[in-house]
Design goal:
Strand order of the largest sheet: 1-2-3-4
Strand content: over 45%
Structural class: mainly beta
Largest sheet: 4 strands, antiparallel
Order of helices and strands: EEEEEEEEEEEEEHEEE
Radius of gyration: 18 Å
Distance between the termini: 27 Å
Oligomer: single chain
Length: 212
């Protein structure tokens, strides 16, 4: 254990792919980065810019470089990049949600640099980084969960049946799950020219679904 020097409640803490750096976020509106290799915990950087409590942080796969995403009560999603050692810059911000953004999740790296978001406005969205260095976002799905969407998580990028069939060419699929204040978990699937459509609804909880 160590003192992060956050000035308010810590909502999330995530290690990077190699387990060497730790990102934390807090109601004090900051993100802090630490080197946690060995017995010492060294403070590396503070990331500032959110105007409300920061709920979640998420590291991208290292094949895309040193990238970190964050989401906040201020309705914003930020993508940060380490431009030089321990120097970080905000390279993208997503502001299409109309209420608190409660969760974020990077897709499996096989699907490219894609970030899913879940918001109290009841919707989820997916932000994708294109080859032209531009970020493209799907419009938030307004009917994902009534009252609010609390959680989002990606499925593996291949169908289980494809592994059993042993095909030399495995088709990648985009599927994700969301959980909301309507007590339901929903599974979504993406198709070209159609977008995200609901594949199934999982019921059974009697109160809000907080994570998936």
């Amino acid at each position: 254990a160590f003192d992060t020097r956050h000035e308010d409640m810590i909502h999330d803490a995530q290690l990077d792919y190699y387990g060497r750096r730790l990102a934390t976020c807090s109601s004090d509106r900051t993100i802090k980065l630490f080197d946690v290799t060995g017995d010492k915990h060294v403070h590396l950087a503070d990331l500032r810019g959110h105007e409300g409590p920061v709920w979640r942080v998420a590291w991208a796969h290292p094949k895309f470089g040193s990238l970190l995403a964050s989401c906040s009560y201020d309705r914003m999603v930020f993508v940060w990049k380490e431009t030089s050692e321990n120097v970080w810059s905000r390279i993208h911000q997503f502001s299409a949600h109309t209420s608190s953004v409660n969760a974020i999740a990077w897709a499996p790296h096989e699907l490219g640099l894609c970030l899913a978001t879940a918001s109290s406005d009841g919707s989820f969205s997916v932000i994708t980084h294109g080859e032209d260095d531009k970020w493209i976002a799907t419009p938030p799905n307004p009917n994902a969960h009534s009252i609010g969407c609390n959680a989002v998580s990606w499925a593996p990028p291949v169908e289980p049946s494809a592994l059993l069939e042993g095909s030399s060419e495995v088709r990648l699929v985009k599927r994700l799950g969301t959980g909301g204040c309507d007590t339901h978990v929903r599974v979504w699937r993406f198709a070209d020219n159609v977008g995200w459509t609901e594949e199934s609804t999982l019921a059974g909880h009697k109160d809000w679904v907080r994570d998936v």
